[in-house]
Amino acid sequence: MQVRRSLVHRNSQGHMSARSSEFRMSSVDEDCASVTLDPLEHEWMMCTADGEWDSLQRLLECEPTLISKKDFVTGFTCLHWAAKQGKHELFAMLVDFAKRHGVAINVNARSSAGYTPLHLAAMHNHIEVMKLLVGAYDADVDVRDYSGKKAAQYLRSSDTCDIKDIIGACVNSDTENASGAGRWKLPKVLQSNLNALRDLCKDIVTLRSAELLVYCVVQ
Question: Which domain holds residue 75?
Answer without folding.
Answer: 38-218
